[in-house]
Amino acid sequence: MLAINNLSVQFTGTNLFDNVTFNIADHDRVGLVGKNGAGKSTLLKILCGWQQPETGTMIIASGQEVGYLPQEMVPDTSRTVIDEAMTAFSRIDELLALQQRLTDEIAERTDYESADYERLLNRHNEVTEQIVMLGGDNRQEHTEKVLLGLGFKHSDFARPVAEFSGGWQMRVELAKLLLRQPDFLLLDEPTNHLDIESIQWLENFLQNYPGAVVLVSHDRTFLDNITNRTIEITAGRIYDYKCSYSDYVVQMQERRASQMAQLTAQQREVAQIEAFIERFRYKATKSKQVQSRIKMLDRMEMVQIDEVSTESIHFRFPPAPHSGKIVIEAQHLGKSYGDLNVFHDVDLLLTSGKKVAFVGKNGEGKSTMAKIVVGDISDYVGSFKLGAQVQVGYYAQNQAAMLDGEKTVFQTIDDIATGDIRPKIRNILGSFLFDSEDCEKKVKVLSGGEKARLALAKLLLTPSNLLVLDEPTNHLDMDSKDILKNALLQYTGTLILVSHDRDFLQGLTDELYEFRDGGVHEFKGDIFEFLEWRQAQTSQQSTKSAAPQASKSASEGRQAYEQSKDRERELRKLRNAVAQCEKEIESLESQIAEKESVLASGSAQDADFYAQYQSLKDKLDEQMEAWELATIAVDEFQNQ
Predict the structure, then answer these.
(1) How far, in Å, are 166, 322, 349, 370, 450 from residue 456 at the CA level?
(2) pLDDT tens, 499-522?
(3) Is 59 left (phi over 0), alpha (psi -120 to 50) or beta?
């Protein structure tokens, strides 16, 4: 159990948290949500001890460990990938040394009947169980499984971590954390550097994780597939919902509607009381009633409405200029970097108005193909050409990082604005939440989300009929992602989208190109249909022979996906029943302990006391039986 009591934190004179109290149980799956700047990352840093609150306390059970993955970090290591990942097992080495010391002590002891000897044996058993739970002698096997699940290849294991990009280095850090298996796992935007396959693997890993998991993520599907509890941070307060993200959104809207109704009713009541006071204030016969109502107003606790941010970006892409019917045509296209063949013999024909997604593991060539389309890469083999009158708009994966940090926000837009747009620069920036003060800030002081919004603003200045967007949702909050998605749905040109965000892709594209094993294969259907089809394929099937069957299995894929979601929901219900029993058992054991403490004091008690004591014990027996049945139900369901 991890407990936060009366936590308060201020930032630039504003309460991020104001006397916040909550607990995280040993097997919770918690999603932290709130607008940007609400304090989600700050709360994670407090939970892991990186930051101290101004007031309040954090209590964690003795011997329990907290592990934390921040959004960004720079690993400092000269080790290879496999060696660095295996540093996660330093705890096992410590336990093995402790186990040996305990073994030696047991061998030397002869007081076999003593309580001290029994405690020594119990401690030895506990340490042995911890070693087994943490992996023991299977460290190499566990490490390889996790690294492969996060997208590394066997050939990557012997390469130095420093050779990899920042995103892949973050995967090594995530692997270390998962291998350590801390009791409380805190993850801040863990999917930012993962492709869809790695995200799905991580989801499965976290669903079966033995400890508690606390997540900050802007990926709805990821949150829904993992969490069964959502903590909303707003205006210095928290609201705790016992449900996943999508259910939270519904309940949150209902709560705010209820607050508005309560406020309206209270305002009506206050108006009536004030009218009575004003009408009879000077009548002696009504003085008592007037004073009573004045006191009533003084005692009345006013209904508080949660802070609701009305700020959101709002924009539409300019109308797409006319282009020819064929937008992109590629034949036998291939690209290599030295000895590394990214893809080869690719044929691609994209017609006007199509909205397609490039999907596949990182490193398979999605961004490389995007750069060929926009002209950033020209040393390819085969043929590639854009159609007549095609005008390209491009959002690179590192677009925000490519901005000139020394320029102001206004200068960034002013430098590329022409004609009638120039007088509208501040209006354009305002639609992306940059006020007059923000316009004079240098780009280098902006947050990741602000840089992403500025990069999107630049994209609007030049009309295009082919948009190529490479991971445009990184650093955007959920509201901003929804607005971008809506703008893309209304966009009249051709769209190529590279993204690992399944919720963002759903309904936005109806055709996908999978980059896999050096090839590119077309799939007709939705992202979730594709993922179900991909999951159904055996490792022995070649991508080329399987790809033609993809469109035929689309409806089957959707049905399988819905069945999978139903199964996940049922499993969550069963697990919630177990958690509820554990909560009741903990409460009953606490009450029984209080009664037994009274009995131990030797003070006389009446018949009611003993009746209550026996009733609590009976209830505990019932709850233990219910817990056993609920646990069996979970095991049986998982084994079906």
Answers:
(1) 23, 22, 27, 17, 10
(2) 999 999 999 998 999 999 899 999
(3) beta
